[in-house]
Specification:
It is built from 11 helices and 12 strands. By secondary structure, the chain is of the alpha/beta class. The strands form 2 sheets. Strands 1-7-6-5-4-2-3 form a 7-stranded mixed beta sheet, with helices on both faces. The chain has a 5-stranded mixed beta sheet with strand order 8-9-12-11-10, with helices on one face. InterPro entries: Cys/Met-Metab_PyrdxlP-dep_enz, PyrdxlP-dep_Trfase, PyrdxlP-dep_Trfase_major, PyrdxlP-dep_Trfase_small.
Length: 376
């Protein structure tokens, strides 16, 4: 894309598109190829399907334009968010290194802890809130930040943490899944890696598994890409194409979802049975002061606690416009009782609610009706 449009919507619609060619589609279709014609020495961009694919190229350029508009950046696409997370950790850490991870992050991270420790890597943890990871940075090779945290929605000061980590000689990776590049740009705040699951809000339709890593350092990007080649954690061309197609509506989805999420949080604040309400965009939320400085949109996820397990499950059963599902960020609202998985340190009645693109009035009415039904 030539030039750097000021508007995020314009950028999202045009990101990663190739230069126009007469009689060709604006967004080329997915390229299904295990191998490519290759005579002579193996030079050029495409040789074998585990290493590169034209459909990935378009998507990676598009995501890069959203992560760091107008700046040199490299993006590597993966088969899932966990593949992207693993690629950064495994490509940057060696036996004897120390990594700092959030103690309240994505529930699959404890499984990563086990593997890292098995390889002789020291794992330290601290909560996201209050920038608590600062206290355990000494001697670390890598600091991993997740902000807002999933599912607790705590926020840490990325710029402050990255400054301290770099001063201590550590690299910094930020899991930006919940915010998306339209909500927050970790690279602009000093991070070395911006990592996200494209399965969630980035693609927003609940129909693909995908992940990506973006970084400015070409050498670090090459190390991440090399890890992808070794383990074969590559995205399918159809998934990559669907993701690129979906980016064109990211700004529309994000604006609607963020506005409705705030309205939902404000309505939940008035319910006596609701406790532990969290939404970074809600004035009065513990994370709001920091979030308002570094986030441009506050996201689609609201979390809250109902009195107990039975109450929460009655609420979920009573909803008619909300799917009981474990993902978030989609155009169809979802909600779930997170404790059912056992991996999150949350109360039995903890609800993670992902606001979709439904009419706000309909969604809020459905939630109010379900809460009333659950009380009896």
């Amino acid at each position: 894309m030539t030039g750097t449009p000021a508007g995020e919507g314009t950028r999202a619609v045009r990101a990663g598109l190739p230069d126009p060619v007469n009689h060709e589609p604006t967004l080329p279709g997915p390229v299904f190829a295990a191998h490519f014609h290759l005579s002579g020495d193996p030079t050029g961009p495409y040789a074998y399907g585990r290493e590169s694919n034209p459909t990935w190229t378009h998507l990676e350029r598009a995501v890069g334009e959203l992560e760091a508009p107008g700046e040199p950046v490299e993006t590597v696409a993966f088969a899932s968010g966990m593949a992207a997370i693993s690629a950064v950790l495994m490509s940057q850490l060696r036996s004897g290194d120390t990594v700092v991870l959030p103690s309240d992050g994505y529930q699959a991270l404890p499984l990563v802890h086990e593997q890292l420790r098995a390889w002789g890597i020291t794992v330290r943890t601290a909560p996201t809130g209050g920038d608590a990871q600062l206290a355990v940075l000494d001697g670390a090779r890598l600091l991993w930040i997740e902000t807002p945290s999933n599912p607790g929605l705590d926020v840490c000061d990325i710029r402050r943490l990255t400054g301290a980590a770099h001063a201590a000689g550590a690299l910094v990776a930020v899991d930006n899944t919940l915010a998306t590049p339209l909500g927050q740009r970790p690279l602009a705040l000093g991070a070395d890696f911006s990592v996200a699951s494209g399965t969630k809000g980035l693609t927003g339709h609940g129909d693909v598994l995908l992940g990506h890593v973006s970084c400015r350092d070409a050498g670090k990007a090459a190390e991440v890409r090399h890890w992808r080649k070794i383990v074969g954690a590559i995205p399918g061309p159809m998934e990559a194409w669907l993701a690129h197609r979906s980016l064109a509506t990211l700004h529309l989805r994000s604006d609607r979802q963020s506005a409705t999420a705030l309205a939902l949080a404000e309505s939940l604040r008035r319910r006596a049975e609701v406790t532990g309400l969290r939404y970074p965009g809600l004035p009065g939320d513990p994370s709001h002061p920091v979030a308002s400085r570094q986030m441009r949109r506050f996201g689609c996820v609201v979390s809250f606690v109902l009195p107990d397990r039975d109450h929460a499950e009655r609420f979920l059963r009573a909803l008619t416009l909300v799917d009981d599902a474990t993902s978030f960020g989609g155009v169809r609202s979802t909600a779930e009782r997170r404790r059912r998985w056992g991996g999150d340190d949350v109360p039995e009645g903890f609800i993670r609610f992902s606001v979709g693109a439904e009419d706000p009035e309909d969604l809020l009415a459905d939630v109010a009706r379900a809460l009333d039904a659950a009380a009896h």
